[in-house]
Amino acid sequence: MNRASRIWLFVGVLLLLVLLESARVYFIMPFPGSQLGLNEPESSGLGRVKLAYWLHHNAGWLRIIGLLILVYPAYQLVAKPSRAWHRYVVVGLLLIYGGVFYMINREMMADQMFLQPIHKRVVPMSQNQIPLDKLVLGFESVGQATAYPIQLIGYHHQVRDTVGGQPIMVTYCTVCRTGRVFSPLVDGQADEFRLVGMDHFNAMFEDKRTGTWWRQATGEAVIGPLRGKAVAELTARQMTLREWAKEYPNTRVLQADSTFAEEFKGMKNYERGLSKGSLTRRDSASWKPKSWVIGVERAGFAKAYDWNQLQKKRILNDVLGGAPILLTLASDSVSFGVWSRRLGVKTLTFHYANRRLTDQETGSIWTWRGQCIDGALKGQKLSSIPQAHQEFWHSWRSFHPNTTKAN
């Protein structure tokens, strides 16, 4: 092999190593052209997520082969250079590759950008320091309730906890505005998960036991040995901490880890839709990709309700999958609920006027929580619809391709 061939071999293999590292992060992070909508066809051959998964699990031996190939031309160009600057070019290029390797694997990988709490504190309301107007995901089990501020879990992406003796995994994807609580049990075994990137603009987690990748919005296994399975979603509700604490006065509240003060500061305006990032800011108009909707799923049927319409009317009566439902908004205009309008054998129709929610059939007065506080039905309570989430329209539409839009 002549000197020119050694130079081209060295440069070519080094370039391939750089492309290997870049591809590992490109296909699972929100770079231009890297993410597909759910209904877009995959390109021929390996799909993008499949390619990313293959690279992720085979990068080690690919690096070793590449570096072994580099040894001979690098030695020749450094030890026996025809020109003195050859050795400086070789060393410089190797340093560049080292820099790329470090940046991608230590700075740009999802689990390096969004870290887990180091000092996790979950305290009673008497010790709480989270403002009451902050949005939270609330979860209750066996009489114990806990609130997880979106400002915090939106940065962490997931927080593990135990509520009422039940292990849970509280997750959030800011690009989809999807808050979900899952059981971390996979095939009956508790597992650990790490944030690995995203698919169709939704966060993906990798389980430690099998290396399977899981979609955050649905809990489904996207690719890997457990593909096609799903972790169980648990019922969580989104509202302000003030409203959650009214319902559960003895609630615990996740506190901010001071280690991530700057990161939390950057999330301060997200929950109200005022984020400056193109991927996380809200479209104020209706039915735009980043418009807010409430997505409701029941008995295999899915429907999206315009957040602007709910804010205007305060309540929405509808029928989904043959079941009459009610959407309500609290006086704070950010806490919401979704309920069944069936009460025993009756189907109620609701009206909102003069800041009062009443049913047409008896004239009884109700709260936004589906509780009757006055009238013939006093003491009655509507059943909640658990599969109801506020999220971006592009997200709900992507992961519920058969969804309909409420009029």
TrEMBL record:
Pfam families: DUF3179. InterPro entries: DUF3179 (IPR021516). It comes from the Bacteria. The chain crosses the membrane at residues 51-72, 84-104. The keyword Transmembrane applies. Keywords: Membrane, Transmembrane, Transmembrane helix. This is DUF3179 domain-containing (Seleno)protein. It comes from Spirosoma soli.
